[in-house]
Amino acid sequence: MSGPSPEIIYLSGVDPVMKRVISEVGPYALTPRATRSPFESLVRAIAYQQLHGKAAESILRRFIALFPGRRFPRPADVMAATPEIIRVTGFSRAKIAALHDLAAKTMDGTVPTTVVIQRLDDDAIVERLVAVRGIGRWTVEMLLIFQLGRPDVLPVDDFGVRNGFRIAYKRTVMPTAKELLAYGERWRPYRTAAAWYLWRAADRGKGARGARMPKVAT
Predict the structure, then answer these.
(1) CA–CA distances in Å: residue 39 to residues 22, 26, 216
(2) CATH number of the domain where residue 197 is located
(3) In whole angstroms, what is the distance from residue 16 CA to residue 115 CA?
(4) Are 194 and 141 in contact (CB under 8 A)?
(5) Residue 168 structural domain
(6) Mind listing the pLDDT tens digit for each residue in 65-83?
(7) Which pTM does this prediction carry?
(8) Distance of CA 94 to the CA centre of its chain
(9) b/e map of 188-201 (b: 16 or more CB within 10 Å)?
(10) Catalytic residue numbers, as ranges
């Protein structure tokens, strides 16, 4: 039987509050889904923005059905589809503009391929992907965590992470993003695991309505 993971050993050693949270939650259990290209992951992320999961999945199914014979459309396919055609799937006009920009920036190399993105550091990925219309830092951070499995990502703008910190550290008010970023320096190089435990703390906290693991495209 294997012992504690490196993340648990390190975080427990540098932060007694995190040690307590870990003891309450249990083993670190984040499993990245590294089977999709950055293009597909971001198309799915755009679909999920400001929508419930079921609604986003319905739109995605109709969108994929526009391109028969493919598991998922390629950037060139999206570029060739007119806004009117995509609109019938349920995508808003703003999201259609984002999809076309994503496709164009994938074709020109701004959005890296699966092979290239593996060689880039986190900051370089953020810089390149936030250039896409409709893609912000939080969306890229979710890709870094849940798709690429990067170990040292702290999404300080995420409500669940901040609320989990408030609950775990018994604060009366939510920390600012700047405060959380500064405190989180002690968690390097395992800030992703720290964020995962803060999401769990938010889930467990009484009255933490809406503070749970973020819904990302599955």
Answers:
(1) 34, 34, 15
(2) 1.10.1670.40
(3) 39
(4) no
(5) 6-30+153-204
(6) 999 999 999 999 999 999 9
(7) 0.87
(8) 21
(9) eebbbbbbbbbbbb
(10) 158
